[in-house]
Amino acid sequence: MSTNIRVVPATEHDITVVLGFIKRLAEYEKAASHEVEATEDLLLKNLFGPHPYAHVLLAYVKRPTDNQEVVAGFALYFFNFSTWKGRPGLYLEDLFVDSEFRGFGIGKRLLAHLAAIAKKRECGRMEWVVLDWNEPAIRFYESLGARQLNEWIINRVAGQALGDLAEM
């Protein structure tokens, strides 16, 4: 099936599909359904509005049962900047392949496509995080040459704490 994978940028017409992937990813990551605050309107504004904050790729495959082309996976990414490298980096926020399509090279194709974008944009690196319990993903990423940076701790300020910090 890997030869039949087509990776394309999402458009505003794909917003329902994108939100569906976000919700399925949250479910896979064992998040409560109320934790996904994204809506189609928010995604349209922030992904396809005048100042897009991120980009989305969709992976299409032909379903073997009926030869229909379907969306099997997605990747959402944005660019950051490395002061030490003096160059941009590509940050992969989300990568998800629907369960029925796992093991066919779709995740690898999405990551290879992202790596090509990173090289074209002269990025110094490509980074993402993975949940510590997601052993299949960890092994997959390692097989592609990814290195875990266990010495780094993610920090996050959100909700009321973000508001409080903004007022200091």
Order of helices and strands: EHHEEEHEHH
Rg result:
17 Å
Kindly state the percentage of residues in helix.
25-40%
- Quickly give the structural class: alpha+beta
List the uncertain runs: none
In short:
With 168 residues, the chain is α+β, with helices and mostly antiparallel strands. It is built from five helices and five strands.
Kindly describe this structure.
The protein is of the alpha+beta class. 33% of the residues lie in helices and 24% in strands. It contains five helices and five strands; from the N terminus they run βααβββαβαα. The protein has a five-stranded mixed beta sheet. A hairpin with a 6-residue loop joins β2 (55-62) and β3. The radius of gyration is 17 Å and the shape is globular. It starts with 5 loop residues before the first strand and ends with a helix. 18% of the residues are buried.
Task: Detail the topology: elements first, then pairings.
Layout: E1 6-9, H1 15-28, H2 40-48, E2 55-62, E3 69-82, E4 87-97, H3 106-120, E5 125-127, H4 135-143, H5 159-166
Parallel strand pairs: 4-5
Antiparallel strand pairs: 1-2, 2-3, 3-4
What structural keywords apply?
alpha+beta; 168 residues; five-stranded mixed β-sheet; 33% helix
